[in-house]
Each structure stands twice: as C-alpha cells, then as structure tokens.
C-alpha cells in the first residue's frame, strides 16, 4: 500500500511524514523543492508474535506501507476562474508519482504559527481543501482532455468497440469533474474501473483529510473534528485530527520513552497506529497471515478478494497452480497451540478459489507445480 501526502506549502506535510515514517526528513523550505521523500514503514501487528511461537518461525515479517511526501500546490489554484495556462501547478514529476499512490493524505493546516506564515496570510482549512481539490481536478482533466482528443482521432479512422467504450467512460469522468465533483464520487462497474485504472486519476483515490493542529489545540480535537466531519459524507473520504509536531517528537523517542510520553499526554496509541487503522478502514483492507518454520508473515489484501488472489499475492506460481487453501482464524490457531492440534479439532477448513479471505485468516496454499 502506498499513500501520498499532499497539501499546500507550510501546512506540515513533511512533519506528518516524519511522524508516520519515524523519519528525520528536512522540514521548512523543503516544500518549495521539486523532490519527494519516500519511506517504507512496518505495520504494527501484535498477532504476529504469538503466531511465530505456534509455527516456531525464525523470522517475523510485517506488512508495510509506503509513505510519499511531495511538494505543495500554488496559491493561484484556489481561484476557479484562473486559466490553467496561468497557474503554477504542482510539479509534473510529483503529480506522476502521486498517481502511483493507492490513497492520498491531504494535510490541512489548522495551527497558528507566526514564524511560519501561511502562503495566503491566514489559516483557513476549508479554503485549502478546495485549493487542493481544484488542483487535482485540473490535473485529471488535463489527462482526460488529451486522451479524449486522441480517441476521437482514432475513431475517425477506425471504429473500435474498445475505444468507443473508453471514450464513453472518459466523457462521463469529464462531466463529473466539470461539475466540480471528484471521480471518487462516480459509481462505475468493475470493468469500467479497470479501463481507467492505469490513468491513476488523483480525484478517484481514497482521501484522508488530516487536520494538523498544535499541541495547545489537543483539548479542542473533538470540536475540530466536528467542524470538518461534513467531508466524511463524501465517498471514500475520512477526517483524521493530528498534532503532527507532537507526534513527530514522539516518533523520535525509543519505544519505552514513547510509551511514557503517550501516557502523560493522555494518548492511548501513536499516530502511526491510529493512522494505519484509519487507512485500512478507508481503503477496505484486511490482513491475512502465512506461517512456517522459516517465517510468519502478514499480507495486505482488499476486503472481498479471494483465496486465489491471495495466492497470487504470495507467489504467481501459487495462483497458476492453485488447488485449494487451508484456512483458520489466527486466534483459534494460537489457542490450539499448534497447527496439528487445530487440524485434529476440525478447525482448519479447506477452501476453494472463490473463498473470500477474512480478516485474521491464516492461509496455507496448496498448489500444483507449474512450468
């Protein structure tokens, strides 16, 4: 899973990145540079250790998330009437990288800091949300307009059902964006989604709105959430309140000191853990496990995906030669103490290709050898 962190200049994007990635990336003027911070983070999962004991595994391998921190958008993007040619857009290389993300985390500044003035002179979260929304609408329209033009030329010379279908879908996408709505609000079939998937439309990606507050605003966190909760009514959109500067400082402590600090601040868990939980819920992700003497490993899958798709995630040969999977819930397996005991109690189930993998399943894939 890959999450792109976006936002306007000086809103705390890189601070959020550092908090989530336990990183020390440069902050401040970094937002004006045409470069990207990248980091891969292990997903904390307390289920792996007891599973490792059951399998007597030599190694524990966590699922991972890639975080990507790009540059900020321009001031002129907030004006609906500014011509695209007159706007200073997000750098094309950054946009291209963001298109490879599975979801976007939009950092919205709600803290005051005279030493770091807002680019518009004052803090206004809802204005900044509109600014990024419009920037991404323009970016998606640019791709759609170009592709529609090419398809129309192709269809003049040669009729193609495939091209006609793509043109129809893109015209629907264009109409949606022209009406000021993101593509994530558009209901399309699985086949239609496959046709446009390769474009990586930014407004189609699940969106986490991160309300970045100061430590002094922690007591107001619930009220701040309520102010922005209206955005959660939009499809595939979640609001997340975070004191990024504080969480970055916590992330730089060792685990023992961090636990003490969190307790003193009245926080039950770190931003990383809360953010990952929120991300998984937003994107409809689940975790399944595989295990053996060599390693026990966590894997990330979309809810509703099948045992066959899980097999392909582990290894393409398992998907090609798939015979069946053996499944058991992780807690049942741990309670039994061994795979042999679980099997003797009839808790290990044989499932076919179409079985929908459930959260916390432990899978053993049985497959024929492939050439």
For the largest beta-sheet, the strand count, sense and barrel status come to: 6 strands, mixed
Straight-line N-to-C gap: 30 Å
Strand ordering within the main sheet: 2-4-1-5-6-7
CATH 4th-level superfamily of the largest domain: P-loop containing nucleotide triphosphate hydrolases
Assigned CATH class of the largest domain: Alpha Beta
Given helix and strand content, the structural type is alpha/beta
Q: Work out the count of structural domains.
A: 2
Task: Please write the string of helix (H) and strand (E) elements.
Answer: EHEHEEHEHHHEHEHHHEEHHEHHEE
Q: How is the CATH topology of the largest domain named?
A: Rossmann fold
Number of helices: 14
Query: How much strand?
Result: 15-25%
Poorly predicted ranges: 74-88
Number of DSSP strand runs: 12
Describe the structure.
The chain has 14 helices and twelve strands. By secondary structure, the chain is of the alpha/beta class. The chain has two domains: 2-44 and 63-282, P-loop containing nucleotide triphosphate hydrolases (Rossmann fold); 304-367, Ubiquitin-like (UB roll), CATH 3.10.20.30. Strand 6 (207-212), helix 7 (221-228) and strand 7 (237-242) form a beta-alpha-beta unit. It starts with a strand and ends with a strand.
Write the layout of secondary structure elements.
Blueprint: E1 2-6, H1 13-21, E2 37-42, H2 48-55, E3 59-61, E4 64-69, H3 92-98, E5 103-109, H4 125-157, H5 161-178, H6 190-197, E6 207-212, H7 221-228, E7 237-242, H8 244-251, H9 255-264, H10 271-283, E8 285-291, E9 295-302, H11 307-314, H12 316-320, E10 322-329, H13 330-336, H14 339-344, E11 349-351, E12 361-367
Parallel strand pairs: 1-4, 1-5, 3-9, 5-6, 6-7
Antiparallel strand pairs: 2-4, 8-9, 10-11, 10-12
Helix pairs in contact: 1-8, 4-5
């Amino acid at each position: 899973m890959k999450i792109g962190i976006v936002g306007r200049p000086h809103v705390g994007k890189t601070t959020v990145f550092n908090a989530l990635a336990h990183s020390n990336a440069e902050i401040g003027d970094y937002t004006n540079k045409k470069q990207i911070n990248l980091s891969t983070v292990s997903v904390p999962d307390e289920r792996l250790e007891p599973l490792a004991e059951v399998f007597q595994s030599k190694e524990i391998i966590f699922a991972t998330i890639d975080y990507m921190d790009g540059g900020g958008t321009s001031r002129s993007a907030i004006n609906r009437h500014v011509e695209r040619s007159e706007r200073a857009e997000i750098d094309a290389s950054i946009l291209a990288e963001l298109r490879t993300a599975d979801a976007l985390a939009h950092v919205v500044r709600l803290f005051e800091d005279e030493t770091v003035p807002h680019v518009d002179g004052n803090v206004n979260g809802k204005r900044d949300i509109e600014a990024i929304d419009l920037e991404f609408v323009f970016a998606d329209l640019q791709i759609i307009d170009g592709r529609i033009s090419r398809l129309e030329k192709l269809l003049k010379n040669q009729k193609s059902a495939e091209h006609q279908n793509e043109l129809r879908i893109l015209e629907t996408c264009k109409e949606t964006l022209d009406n000021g709505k993101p593509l994530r609000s558009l209901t399309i079939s699985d086949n239609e989604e496959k046709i446009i998937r390769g474009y990586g439309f930014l407004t189609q990606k699940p969106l986490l709105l991160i309300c970045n507050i100061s430590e002094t605003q922690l007591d107001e966190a619930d009220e701040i959430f309520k102010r922005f909760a209206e955005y959660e009514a939009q499809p595939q959109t979640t609001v997340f309140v975070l004191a990024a500067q504080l969480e970055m400082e916590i992330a730089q402590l060792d685990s023992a000191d961090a636990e003490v600090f969190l307790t003193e601040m009245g926080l039950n868990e770190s931003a990383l853990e809360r953010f990952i939980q929120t991300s998984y819920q937003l994107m409809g992700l689940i975790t399944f496990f595989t295990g053996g003497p060599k390693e026990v490993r966590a894997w990330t899958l979309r809810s509703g995906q099948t045992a066959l798709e899980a097999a392909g995630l582990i290894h393409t040969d398992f998907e090609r030669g798939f015979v069946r999977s053996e499944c058991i819930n992780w807690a049942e397996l741990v309670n039994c103490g061994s795979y042999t005991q679980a099997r003797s109690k009839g808790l290990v189930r044989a499932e076919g290709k179409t079985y929908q993998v459930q959260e916390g399943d432990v899978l053993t894939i049985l497959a024929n050898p492939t050439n």
